[in-house]
Structure formats: structure tokens, C-alpha cells
Amino acid sequence: MRSAFALLSLAFAAVSFAAPATNTGSGTGALFQRCNRPGVFALTFDDGPNENSYGLAKYLHSENITATFFTNSRNFFSSPFDTTTTETEDGTKTYQEVLQYYDQLGHEVASHTFSHAVLTSLNADQVAEELNLQSDTIFRAIGKRPAFMRPPEGATNEAVNQVISSLGYSNINWDVDTKDYEHLGLATEEERVRAIVDLDVPGVTLGHIALQHDVHADSVNILTPWLVQYLRSKNYTFVTVSDCIGLPAYQ
Ligand SMILES: *[C@@H]1O[C@H](CO)[C@@H](O)[C@H](O)[C@H]1NC(C)=O
Ligand SMILES: *[C@@H]1O[C@H](CO)[C@@H](O)[C@H](O)[C@H]1NC(C)=O
């Protein structure tokens, strides 16, 4: 599972480096990897919520930053999502309350499917179920249904794209892959980010969408604060995905 993820991500990165990432297509199969204008940067976090997530949302808020969380219901825990709790500096919270907290702070709640299933291995009904169940979880928490999804491992094909589109979702990928799941340390992650962002021409290069995972404590506690100060030194404004691409976050 983990090595398949790494291989797919490598394949994806190779494509990204071969040509500058762009937003491709419209309607079915449209794929967003960049913002629609220069000067803005979207931090995105996949695979949560887990025990790191509430504190991350709070830290970003203390920095006046809004971000986008691509959430699962059954990924790092198998117990019922709505009643499973996590300890936070504001007391014990259910994961439903963590999603509510994101929304209260202006972060966006997006779908990374219900169980982090690789959608290309499912039939159309199963893909729809993965999306609908996660939409239900998010709706129970915040009373809104997500319009953004990110396929686990970035894996899609024509049949999956048909379902994503027919259920009203935009497919949100990234152009800056920190590969935080490799845990190679800040210096390596910093190089990966700089290899892309240091080449930007201010006022010209379209803004970026970065990929991180809030389930990894080092990504939350070490990489994120570095990104915040580095991107501020580049005069980037942090935006949610909806602001980045100019589409509503909810259906
Ligand atoms: C966040 O915004 C508030 C209100 O504008 C301001 O007082 C505060 O200094 C800002 N904090 C940071 C870390 O930029
Ligand atoms: C950021 O903005 C400041 C103030 O306008 C400017 O002096 C600096 O050159 C800018 N930095 C970059 C990397 O554009």
C-alpha cells in the first residue's frame, strides 16, 4: 500500500517536472493543479483528520491562514467517525467537531473519499459510494456537501472521472509535492519546494497548490511553519482551493 503510493506519486512527480503543471480540460476529466492567478498559494492536507489536525487548523488560524483539508472517514482509524474522539488543547473533541472547527475558522472541508480507496480499482457504483459516504460525513458535520475531491494517490481514469464529474466534483491535484510521507526531513522537503517556487516570476507565474498530509506530525509541526515563513518571504498570500481556482467549495 505504502510502496504503491510512493511509486504512483513518483510517476506523478515525473510528469509534473517534465512540463510545468497546468489546469487541464473542462467538464469531465478537468484536473486542477495550479491557482488561476499569480501571488496566491493553497496549502492542502490529505488523509485526516487524525490527532494532529485540530492543532494544525488552530495554528494556521493564528497565522491568518486558511487551508483546505481533503478528509477521509475511515483511514487512520476504523471506529465510527462520528463518535471517535481526539485530545486537543481545547479539550476532547469528536472528529465531527474537528470538521466543524475547520469550517468555523474558514478552512475548507473537501473529500479524499470515505475509506481512502484507490478509485481506479473500483467499479462506478463503488466510486460513487466512496464519494457519497464521505459527502454524508461532511454534511453531518457542517451542513454542506463538498464540491472538491482528490482521488487517493492521485489515481483516476476515464471511468472514475465520469463519476467524479457526474456527482458534481472538481478533481483537485497539486503542483508542489512535498512528499512529506517519506519523512526525509526538512532539508529535503525544502529543496523540493524551492526547486519549483524559487523559479517563480512574481506577478507572472500562476499560484501553486501544495500537497501535505496532516496525519504526519513532522509535516504539521516542522514543514508547515517553514512553508509559512518561506512563502511569506516570497510575498505569497495563502488561499483556500476555492479562492485559488475560483470555484465554490461546496455543492
Ligand atoms: C492576523 O490578523 C490580525 C488582525 O488583522 C492581526 O492583528 C495579527 O497580527 C495577524 N497575525 C499574523 C501572525 O499575521
Ligand atoms: C516582496 O514585497 C516587498 C515589499 O513590496 C519587496 O520589497 C520584495 O522585493 C518582494 N519580494 C519578492 C520575492 O517579490
Automatic annotation (TrEMBL):
Cofactors demanded by this protein: Co(2+)
Keyword set, alphabetical order: Carbohydrate metabolism, Hydrolase, Metal-binding, Signal
Signal peptide: 1-18
Pfam families: Polysacc_deac_1
Any one of the GO BP annotations: carbohydrate metabolic process
Annotated source species: Mucor saturninus
Matching PROSITE patterns: NODB
Keyword Signal applies: yes
PANTHER family: CHITIN DEACETYLASE (PTHR46471), CHITIN DEACETYLASE-RELATED (PTHR46471:SF2)
Domain NodB homology: 39-239
Keyword Hydrolase: yes
Coiled-coil intervals: none
Protein name as it appears in the record: NodB homology domain-containing protein
Domain of life of the source: Eukaryota
Molecular function in Gene Ontology: hydrolase activity, acting on carbon-nitrogen (but not peptide) bonds; metal ion binding
